[in-house]
Amino acid sequence: MEKYIKYMKEALKEAKKAELIDEVPIGCVIVKDGKIIARGHNQRETNQSPIGHAEIIAINKASKKLNSWRLEGCDIYVTLEPCIMCSGAIIQSRINKVYYGASDPKGGALGSSINVLEANNINHHPEVISGVLKEECSSIITSYFKAKRQSK
Amino acid sequence: MEKYIKYMKEALKEAKKAELIDEVPIGCVIVKDGKIIARGHNQRETNQSPIGHAEIIAINKASKKLNSWRLEGCDIYVTLEPCIMCSGAIIQSRINKVYYGASDPKGGALGSSINVLEANNINHHPEVISGVLKEECSSIITSYFKAKRQSK
Questions:
Q1: What are the helix (H) ranges across chain A?
Q2: pLDDT at A102
Q3: Inter-chain CB proximity A94 and B50 less than 8 Å
Q4: What average pLDDT does range A11-39 have in this prediction?
Q5: For position A117, what pLDDT does the model report?
Q6: A87: nearest Cα among A61, A124, A121
Q7: In what order do the strands lie in the sheet with A97-102?
Q8: What is the per-residue pLDDT across A100-112, written as a single tens digit (0 to 9) for each?
């Protein structure tokens, strides 16, 4: 199995953790030297935090683990295309590569709603690989909202 | 004195706190119903955190104080034009108005390096007022870097 598939499956496990606590199921992992060093799942409602996205939680954990704000040499695997805030955090942290699953036309900031990497004068441009396990990453969200609507 | 001048002066006080701990002097306050409910200053190096910007710290505090990820009815006053990450956090938190001091051609995301509010399909567009006490907000940063260079 390709490595990026393996790590996206781990990100999907995180998304499922979000679903279990009735959060929109989005998850991610951060990988350095072949090891997962941080995990995160969406906890916006649980923590009542506007910054409680999977990526911010994982980036925060990874920087604590490495005791550095520079996450150079780290890759992030996230089930949904990051929003403006999370794409900005990825740039700020100097993450090397972003692998994401499903695109997000309603706020994805790596090409769908806007491409923040087109900003002038920013000092870091992570490589972006999209569409990794996109069916699974997309359907977990679709199913979540479908179930929500039916329960109403 | 105009209210927005008063609050920007408070944001400048926060920027000075950052300078005292040898951080790039950027500060902010969040105001609701005429009261400052949260303050933040840049602590990226101190906390070794890529998300340790003034705005993220203040937004986090404000949402804890209000016990809500929705900072509706809140305004943010920040000495420097917010970066992509912080502009995204402002959008996520539904902050009403953004008052900023100095523009940032090297990463300002509300018009200088990019304008993230031009993203398609985002569900919140804060009002932006720029140039509030821009000389003071700019010179505190310029002086900081000048002193840094001279001490080398």
A1: 3-20, 44-47, 54-66, 84-92, 134-151
A2: 98
A3: yes
A4: 98
A5: 98
A6: A124
A7: A35-41, A27-32, A74-80, A97-102, A127-129
A8: 999 999 999 999 9
Distance CA A55, CA A60 (A): 8
Among B52, B94, B113, beta carbon nearest to A122? B113
Q: pLDDT exceeding 90 applies to what percent of chain A?
A: 96
- Return the SS3 of B90: helix
Q: Does A92 sit within 8 Å of B113, measured CB to CB? A: no
Determine, for residues B114 and A118 on separate chains, whether the beta-carbon distance falls below 8 Å. yes
Q: A109: closest CA among B36, B8, B114?
A: B114
Characterize A83-118 residue by residue with b for buried, 16 or more Cβ atoms within 10 angstroms of its Cβ, and e for exposed: bbbbbbbbbbbbbbbbbbbbbbeebbbbbbbbebbe
Specify whether the CB–CB gap between B41 and B66 falls below 8 A. no
Quote the tokens at residue B31: 């105001």
CA-based torsion, B69, B70, B75, B81: positive or negative = positive
Given a cut of 90, is residue A151 above it in pLDDT? no
Chain A residues near residue B87 by CB distance under 8 angstroms: 84-85, 88
pTM score over 0.80: yes
Give which of B131, B39, B119 is closest to B80, Cα–Cα: B131
Q: What number is the ipTM of this complex?
A: 0.97
Closest among A34, A14, A39 to A24, alpha carbons compared: A14
In chain B, residues with a C-beta closer than 8 Å to the C-beta of A107 are: 119, 121-123
Long-range CB contacts for residues B101-104, cutoff 8 Å, separation at least 24: B101/B8, B101/B11, B101/B12, B101/B131, B101/B132, B101/B133, B101/B134, B101/B136, B101/B137, B101/B138, B102/B134, B102/B137, B102/B138, B102/B141, B103/B130, B103/B131, B103/B134, B104/B80
| Residues 87-106 in A contacting B (C-alpha not used; CB under 8 Å) | 87-89, 91-94, 105-106
Does A55 participate in catalysis according to the annotation?
Answer: yes
